[in-house]
């Protein structure tokens, strides 16, 4: 699923100022009211402290319609006046482990609250991101239920009536027994593994469309609850009478610490814990209830409360054990599957106005208000039926007009297509006539083309043979040229060799002639020298002879 993660949320009230340095500008917008605190004093609805509850377990039929009278022994009464403090003026930070609840700021861009598939695809993704941001040690989240409360009368509130379409009984959604049963039913094979770790059920409550003016949600600090404050009450299905689950009902005692956020806006979220398997947590759950604000605090013509509450199983895997190979995807959550199919029932299908007014009549004596509410609701229902009938009539008329227009359009298209078909038929006849007239010519052309093709094939074959012959001739010529080349090279080499030998012989001959000439000259020179030497030797003898 595919939404973008929202910016980190921050605690509502003064406690958020301690975190401003670590949060984005969007997350740290001032939420504390500049005016005086709007603490309220009201009487909340509790289980009546009857002796029978010491021996008989409370039993409630769900859905609790008027025809279930006598089938339930749950009797409610208004407790003494109690003060519900406004968290906007409290410096104390609240958290889930120590108090069981936490007010945070978490803006949402989602607005399509009438589309259950859209809620499954987008809003649940934002809430999973919010849980990872605001809750410690979250390994896996599984959404399983939701309550979408929207106004049935265009959001208008009738002055002077204490009409409250929400659960205004101090209670705990489930007890430990049904919480463990719920975990086992929803997680199947992984249940044993998940129950060895830490399991929590956390409700995410947010106003939608506008601030809360008339009927807010109060939570009791879980850190000062007693073990016997919550009485287990079995709930059975009205249709079958079979066991459904257990819830926690509460009798009044002094000492409950109640809190709410005045005029809480759609960017505010209340996280409150319904179950925690960890015994180390100071608050393992907290009580909650809807309550009517005093009439003097409600602006004139203020819209009635509209809100969404999502319930989630939050798991921390057991330490030191191998994590599961498969973690539930958002699309596999039971709540996501229900919303994707649009099967989440409207709240007024589960809790009838007769049940709410029955409580008012039996416990508070508001007979007049109850009858006015019944009449007002019946009028609204009739008006709604009339509007639906008018819408159906208009829709039928529009569909009829659309059908007429569509029929006329189809008739025009049919006429155009008929004309086109007639035109094509005429063209087809003309083509057939031309084909019949030119069939002989076409046959002649075909025969001529066949003859030309045969001639072309014959010529092609002859050309192929001629080409092969020419190639063979060329190869023969190339061989002859190679032989001539080799022969020429041989003769050339021989001629060069003979020429070279003749040159050598001529050079030798010349050298020999030169040597002979030199020898002859040397011999003549030797002879001349010998003659000269002989004459020289003869001269001394003549001198000696003359001397004598």
UniProtKB/TrEMBL annotation:
Family, similarity comment: Belongs to the asaB hydroxylase/desaturase family.
Disordered, as annotated region: 1-32
Lineage: Eukaryota, Fungi, Dikarya, Ascomycota, Pezizomycotina
Statement: the UniProt record of this protein carries the keyword Cell membrane: no
Organism annotation: Hortaea werneckii
Stated name of the protein: Uncharacterized protein
Skewed-composition ranges (Low complexity): 8-17
InterPro entries: AsaB-like
Coiled-coil annotated residue ranges, if any: 375-441
GO molecular-function terms, A-Z: oxidoreductase activity
Keywords carried by this UniProt record: Coiled coil, Oxidoreductase
């Amino acid at each position: 699923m595919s939404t973008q993660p929202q910016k980190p949320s921050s605690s509502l009230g003064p406690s958020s100022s301690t975190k401003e340095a670590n949060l984005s500008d969007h997350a740290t917008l001032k939420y504390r009211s500049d005016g005086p605190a709007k603490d309220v004093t009201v009487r909340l609805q509790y289980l009546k402290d009857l002796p029978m509850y010491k021996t008989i377990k409370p039993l409630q039929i769900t859905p609790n319609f008027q025809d279930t009278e006598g089938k339930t022994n749950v009797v409610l009464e208004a407790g003494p006046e109690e003060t519900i403090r406004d968290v906007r003026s409290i410096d104390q930070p609240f958290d889930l482990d120590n108090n069981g609840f936490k007010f945070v700021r978490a803006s949402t861009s989602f607005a399509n609250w009438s589309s259950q598939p859209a809620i499954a695809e987008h809003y649940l993704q934002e809430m999973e991101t919010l849980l990872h941001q605001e809750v410690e040690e979250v390994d896996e989240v599984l959404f399983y239920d939701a309550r979408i409360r929207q106004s049935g009368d265009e959001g208008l509130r009738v002055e002077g009536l204490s009409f409250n379409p929400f659960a205004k009984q101090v209670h705990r959604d489930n007890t430990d027994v049904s919480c463990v049963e719920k975990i086992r039913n929803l997680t199947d094979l992984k249940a044993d593994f998940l129950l060895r770790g830490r399991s929590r059920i956390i409700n995410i409550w947010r106003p939608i469309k506008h601030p809360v003016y008339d009927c807010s949600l109060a939570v009791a600090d879980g850190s000062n609850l007693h073990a016997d404050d919550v009485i287990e009450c079995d709930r059975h299905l009205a249709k079958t009478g079979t066991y459904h689950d257990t819830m926690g009902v509460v009798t009044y005692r002094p000492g409950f610490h109640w809190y709410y956020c005045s005029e809480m806006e759609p960017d505010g979220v209340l996280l409150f814990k319904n179950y925690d398997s960890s015994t180390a947590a100071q608050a393992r759950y907290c009580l909650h209830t809807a309550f009517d604000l005093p009439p003097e605090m409600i602006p004139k013509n203020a819209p009635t409360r509209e809100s969404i509450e999502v319930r989630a199983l939050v798991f921390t895997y057991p330490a030191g054990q191998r994590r599961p190979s498969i973690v539930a995807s958002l699309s596999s959550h039971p709540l996501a599957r229900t919303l994707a199919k649009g099967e989440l029932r409207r709240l007024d299908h589960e809790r009838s106005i007769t049940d709410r007014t029955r409580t008012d009549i039996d416990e508070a004596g508001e007979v007049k208000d109850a009858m006015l509410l019944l009449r007002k609701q019946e009028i609204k229902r009739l008006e709604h039926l009339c509007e639906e009938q008018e819408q159906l009539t208009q829709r039928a008329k529009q569909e009829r007009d659309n059908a007429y227009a569509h029929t006329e359009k189809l008739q025009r298209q049919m006429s155009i297509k008929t004309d086109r078909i007639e035109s094509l038929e005429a063209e087809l006849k003309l083509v057939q006539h031309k084909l019949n007239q030119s069939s002989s010519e076409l046959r002649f052309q075909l025969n001529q083309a066949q003859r030309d093709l045969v001639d072309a094939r014959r010529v092609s074959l002859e050309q192929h043979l001629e080409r092969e012959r020419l190639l063979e001739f060329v190869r023969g010529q190339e061989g002859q040229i190679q032989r001539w080349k080799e022969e020429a090279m041989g003769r050339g080499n021989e001629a060069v060799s003979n020429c070279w030998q003749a040159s050598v012989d001529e050079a030798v001959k010349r050298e020999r002639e030169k040597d002979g000439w030199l020898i002859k000259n040397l011999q003549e020179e030797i002879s001349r020298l010998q003659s000269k030497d002989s004459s020289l030797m003869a001269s001394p003898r003549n001198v000696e002879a003359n001397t004598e």
